[in-house]
Design goal:
With 259 residues, this protein is an alpha/beta fold. It has two domains: 179 residues, 3-Layer(aba) Sandwich (Rossmann fold), CATH 3.40.50; 62 residues, Helicase, Ruva Protein, domain 3. Helices cover 32% and strands 19% of the residues. It has eight helices and nine strands. Strands 4-3-2-5-6-9-7 form a seven-stranded mixed beta sheet, sandwiched between helices. Helix 2 links the parallel strand 3 and strand 4. Helix 3 runs parallel beside helix 5 and helix 6 packs across helix 8. The N and C termini lie far apart (67 Å).
Length: 259
């Protein structure tokens, strides 16, 4: 059976390299035996290693991919779902914790990560393929230009490992950029030691003007006369660790309460 053709408007490049596919699957299965969802299965190069799992679903918005997979795995059609992961409710599929795997469409990979953050009480492990620059950004540590919003927010709740780089030749059609596989494993932080909603706002506001010091970038969040003598306000956002962003959020939270 011929593989479905790539849908360029979806930003999808289908993985064809079998060893890479096996390495991705192994990285996940060595980390967890939780129920699992695959995002963007495409031609099923990962799916074929996972379809026999009792609690497994593959979801794709590409109707050709869904049709192809259902014909390929007629006994498992109930596991192959048409839909948009970004809009789907996981409560209908998983009663408790689950894992995510996928060769993620590049144009929505960041949005997938933000949904993972929304589902952080249930998503325990993620192993996924990203554009290399995005993977590096997610795994990056403070002090570099690559470190950003996703770095801080994801590292607040997940331990992140950059696993390996994947060359363009591993895909159909070959992308113009390199790719990379990373693993996210839920850490022990059940709740941040600050207002989590405000934490997200502080991080995003800080990096939206990353060339400025924190003092200037978070001005919209501060009232007149706000005490910004803490040394944290002298730094730029890429210089702050997750713990320092938590501390910054607590300072802003406390002073807003007493304003």
């Amino acid at each position: 059976m011929q593989p479905v053709r790539a849908k360029k408007h979806l930003g999808q490049h289908f993985l064809k390299d079998e060893q890479t596919a096996k390495n991705i699957v192994d990285a996940l299965l060595q980390s967890t035996d939780l129920p699992l969802i695959e995002i963007g299965p495409g031609t099923g190069v990962l799916t074929k290693h996972l379809i026999e799992k009792e609690k497994f679903f593959a979801v794709d918005i590409d109707t050709e991919s869904i049709e192809f997979l259902k014909k390929t795995y007629p006994k498992h059609q109930a596991k192959i779902l048409y839909g948009d992961f970004l809009r789907m409710s996981m409560d209908n599929l998983f009663a408790d914790k689950f894992a995510i795997i996928g060769n993620f469409p590049y144009n929505i990979s960041s949005q997938i990560m933000f949904k993972v953050l929304d589902l952080r009480t249930k998503v325990d492990v993620v192993v996924g393929m990203f554009q290399k620059e995005v993977a590096e950004r997610i795994a990056e540590k403070p002090g570099t230009k690559t470190y950003g919003i996703l770095s801080v927010l994801l590292q607040a709740f997940y331990d992140i490992d950059y696993l390996f780089t994947v060359e363009p030749s591993a895909f159909i059609p070959p992308p113009k950029v390199k790719s990379a596989v990373i693993k996210l494993k839920r850490n022990n932080t059940q709740k941040l030691n600050c207002d989590e909603k405000l934490f997200f706002i502080v991080v995003k506001t800080s990096f939206n003007q990353r060339r400025k010091t924190i003092r200037n970038s978070v001005k919209p969040l501060l009232h007149d006369g706000f005490d910004t003598t803490s040394k944290l306000f002298d730094k730029r956002p890429e210089q702050l660790s997750v713990e320092q962003f938590v501390e910054l959020t607590k300072i802003i939270e406390q002073q807003r309460l007493t304003a």
